[in-house]
Design brief:
The complex is a heterodimer. Chain A is α+β, with helices and mostly antiparallel strands. Chain A has a single domain, classed as 2-Layer Sandwich (Alpha-Beta Plaits), CATH 3.30.70.20. Chain A has 10 helices and 19 strands. Chain B has 2 domains: 75 residues; 213 residues, Immunoglobulin-like, CATH 2.60.40. Chain B contains 5 helices and 15 strands. Classes of the chains: A alpha+beta, B alpha+beta. At the A-B interface, loops of A face helix 4 of B. The complex binds iron/sulfur cluster (2 copies). The site of one iron/sulfur cluster has 14 residues of chain A, from helix 3.
Chain lengths: 382, 357
């Protein structure tokens, strides 16, 4: 095991291989507050990549209703259970994790602490849809934030981790992380179906194909990325919750890079279960209406501040944040830079060409109900 | 040292000398004799390469091969559920076959669902080497590995285990570009563009091939993580599971002409590995043996010479012991006479002396 640096833990940790960061790391931010659980992302992926025989149960993108939903069953609680105490020292500038990661918790003879889901565990992709944290009680007042009764929709894909557990666990070295963009792939020619990656990935994003008998996973639509375009699940997002770009280490953060801005500058977008130690590269703006205790466990010690910062946007205090978030799914080009120009958010692609311009406030035009030119009544007047 | 001790000593030393000489000659084995070499028995005509129950196997001397849980590389096997293999070998002019038998209460010959893992057994063959050889070879020691897989055999003998066999009531009415009727058969209904949705199959991964031709994968490795299925498949074999026992034959031409295959000959070394699918053994989670010398030639029959030599040595030892004991007696006698004379001569002095005291 090598000593590597995981900035999300603010410390060195043990990993199977030496630290070897890609030249660029693809990343995305999901604003949980906007997801409507329409599953368009799920189907965009399903119809593109997993409609083959043997992949029926696979959803490389899934959307579960938290706190109860989980695909596969109990993916989060089962690994958290195995991990032991997960404390953070918040006296340091970035909080420092003092518990163990899944690599440090590996039993003797193993590379990673993990578990293998069975076929039934995968059989409830949307169990508990729309269920709330507890039974709705008439006497509880629901209009304060956080809500007494809450749930949120949690869209998940492979995190294309900096320290992938899937890659570490594969004794066959059939999994690799691309130097050019950090996308983690399973080589379908080399895989011998050992399913060590399925066991090891705590987010359970490596899946076994019943027919080809190899393991498969999200490929971050790399053919699209190579063309500077967003993956399918991202560009089809109905709730416009997603933004795609490249993320840097905190010390290399570029403030006008939209991802760095959300992750490092504003610290509003947080990793899922950072304590597992994988340095996942999909970031989440935590739900502002849910129990913060739950969010702290799911998104780490930055959850409270992130929620506060998000509330500040509505208070009009964060025009740049508002600008970045308006660029979500306003383009399908991977963004390299953003700018707030007066009343407009402007996005530039990685070659710094302007690809999108969005007003901070959409102008509202109200038309008459009756259209005398065509002698018709309008269905939509705004 | 008295006579008795001397005789025992002579006997022990002679025995040790004889034992060392015989061991040095290789006529008898050292400690832990069983299992350190595997003698292949020669037969005329065809080898029973697909028949582990053939009576011809009785011609071969079995050896017991102890196994231990693989613990060199991670992930390791925690407990070896299978701790011994019985191995026999037969050969004819051109081919060699191994029959490996072990106890396994469950037959695991499916890998369709998430928690199905196969029973398997592998033999690796290498040239005798002065370098330390570890499991799976190294960059300086290319290993030829033949792995028999229970699921590959089941796919050949019973037809490809498709989704509908593991999940009988599943229904999917559409797969992109697939031709035919639900549930759509692999691979017949997935030709052309449809095969792109069976990625492992499309890129030619042998594990994804539904139409396997052999249950034994002919592979090569140069250390952990490096195993590759060979371009040319030269190994054959078949297993039978009955009453909690697997009996598997793995066979190959001794010289395949394939540079990836070790030429099988006298003094090659062989090692075995076994996987218990029921215990989720897979990949490096396996039980392995140490190296065993493979022998094709029995030396000349030394038994008679050995008996004669032993007889001569025993007679020589007895004679030597007898002579020694005789000489001992003779040496003893004059001493006694001398003593007597002395005694007689000294008697008066003795008496006198006592008076003086
Ligand atoms: S989320 Fe899982 S599958 Fe994806 S890179 Fe990380 S460990 Fe691998
Ligand atoms: S498409 Fe967007 S809004 Fe719809 S479920 Fe997916 S992430 Fe949520």
């Amino acid at each position: 095991m090598a000593d590597v640096h995981n900035w999300q833990l603010n410390r060195q940790m043990k990993y199977q291989y030496e630290e070897s960061r890609p030249d660029k790391q693809v990343s995305a931010v999901f604003d949980i507050n906007k997801c409507i659980a329409c599953q368009t992302c799920t189907m965009a992926c399903k119809t593109t990549w997993t409609s083959g025989k043997g992949q029926e149960y696979m959803f490389w993108n899934s959307v579960e209703t938290k706190p109860w939903g989980s695909y596969p069953m109990g993916w989060d609680v089962r690994i958290l259970d195995k991990l032991g105490p997960q404390n953070w020292d918040k006296t340091t500038d970035l909080a420092t994790y003092s518990g163990k990661t899944i690599f440090e918790k590996a039993p003797p003879g193993e590379r990673v602490e993990g578990w293998r889901p069975d076929d039934m565990d995968w059989a409830y992709p949307n169990r508990g849809e729309d269920e709330t944290n507890e039974a709705i009680d008439d006497t509880k007042y629901h209009l304060t934030i956080p809500h007494a009764i809450w749930n949120f929709y949690f869209a998940r894909i492979c995190m294309h981790c900096t320290y992938p557990a899937c890659l570490a666990a594969c004794p066959r070295k059939a999994i690799y992380k691309r130097k050019e963009d950090g996308i983690v792939l399973i080589d379908q020619e080399r895989c011998r179906g050992y399913r060590e990656c399925v066991r090891a990935c705590p987010y359970k994003r490596a899946m076994y194909n019943h027919v080809t008998r190899t393991s498969e996973k999200c490929i971050f639509c790399y053919p699209a990325v190579e063309e500077g375009q967003w993956p399918r699940c991202m560009r089809n997002c109905i709730g416009k919750i997603r933004i795609v770009g490249y993320v840097n280490k905190p010390e290399d953060s570029v403030p006008d890079n939209p991802i760095d801005f959300l992750v490092h500058e504003k610290k509003i977008a947080l990793p899922i279960l950072p304590q597992l130690g994988l340095e996942p590269n999909i970031y989440y703006i935590p739900p502002i209406h849910s129990d913060l205790k739950f969010s702290r466990q799911m998104f780490g010690p930055g959850a409270d501040d992130a929620v506060q910062t998000y509330k500040d946007i509505t208070n009009g205090n964060e025009p740049e944040l508002r600008a970045v978030l308006l660029l979500c799914v306003s383009t399908d080009k991977i963004l390299g830079r953003f700018e707030l120009q007066g009343n407009e958010a402007v996005g530039f692609d990685v070659s710094d060409t302007e690809v999108v311009r969005v007003p901070l406030k959409e102008p509202v035009i109200v038309r008459d109900f009756y259209d005398p030119v065509h002698d018709v009544y309008r269905h939509n007047i705004t | 040292m008295d006579k008795k001790t001397r005789v025992v000593l002579v006997l022990i030393v002679s025995f040790a000398v004889v034992l060392t000489a015989l061991q040095y000659q290789g006529w008898i084995s050292g400690v832990a004799a069983s299992g350190s070499s595997l003698m292949t028995a020669e037969v005329d005509g065809e080898l029973p390469v697909t028949d582990p129950e053939n009576v011809l196997w009785n011609k071969a001397t079995p050896i017991d091969v102890p196994l231990s849980a693989q613990g060199i590389t991670t992930p390791t096997l925690r407990n070896a559920t299978i701790d011994t293999l019985e191995v026999r070998s037969l050969r004819n002019d051109t081919h060699v076959a191994f029959r490996i038998t072990w106890t396994d209460a469950t037959k695991n010959n499916r890998t369709t669902t998430n928690l199905e893992f196969r029973d398997a057994v592998a033999i690796q063959i290498a040239e005798k080497s002065s370098e330390p050889l570890i499991c799976m070879g190294a960059s300086y020691a290319r290993m030829h590995i033949m792995q028999w897989k229970a699921d590959w055999q089941a796919d050949i003998e019973e037809g490809f285990r498709d989704l509908q066999h593991s999940f009988p009531n599943f229904w999917n009415d559409y797969y992109p570009y697939a031709m035919g009727e639900p549930p759509y058969r692999v691979p017949e209904d997935f030709s052309g563009e449809a095969s792109q949705y069976l990625v492992g199959y499309h890129v030619g991964n042998p594990f994804s091939d539904p139409l396997k031709v052999t249950a034994v994968e002919d592979a090569v490795a140069e250390g952990f993580s490096t195993i590759e299925t060979q371009e040319v498949q030269n190994a054959v074999g078949r297993g039978v599971w009955q009453d909690g026992t697997w009996s598997v034959v793995i066979a190959r031409a001794m010289d395949t002409g394939d540079s990836n295959d070790t030429v099988i000959k006298e003094e090659n070394i062989v090692a075995f590995a076994v996987w218990d699918g029921d215990g989720h053994d897979v990949g490096s989670r396996k039980a392995t043996s140490t190296w065993i010398t493979f022998r094709t030639e029995e030396g000349p029959d030394y038994t008679l010479y050995l008996l004669i030599i032993l007889l001569i040595i025993i007679v020589a030892v007895i004679v030597a012991a007898y002579i020694l004991s005789r000489r001992g007696k003779r040496e003893e006698e004059p001493e006694k006479t001398e003593e007597k004379t002395k005694k007689v001569k000294e008697e008066p002095k003795e008496e006198k002396g006592s008076d003086e005291d």
